[in-house]
What we know:
Elements: E1 9-12, H1 16-21, E2 27-29, E3 48-52, H2 60-70, E4 75-79, H3 82-88
Parallel strand pairs: 1-2, 1-3, 3-4
Amino acid sequence: xxxxxxxxxxxxxxxxxxxxxxxxxxxxxxxxxxxxxxxxxxxxxxxxxxxxxxxxxxxxxxxxxxxxxxxxxxxxxxxxxxxxxxxxxxxxxx
Length: 94
């Protein structure tokens, strides 16, 4: 999705401290426990959102995806492999 220039919002659901250490390109930091409509009011409910966290054991991306769906966002995806799979595939981080 990043390579194709597809328009979406990439949400890093980990803590701000983890985000500051390493993150995926274009990601914004919204920890899953802080996620709410007030933080996403500038985005249409039809926008595509992708959540991620550390790896398959990390639940933050699942929690964030479920919250987005409950808030009425229509196109929510979860990148379960997170930072670990991203790095293992050889993609760059920031």
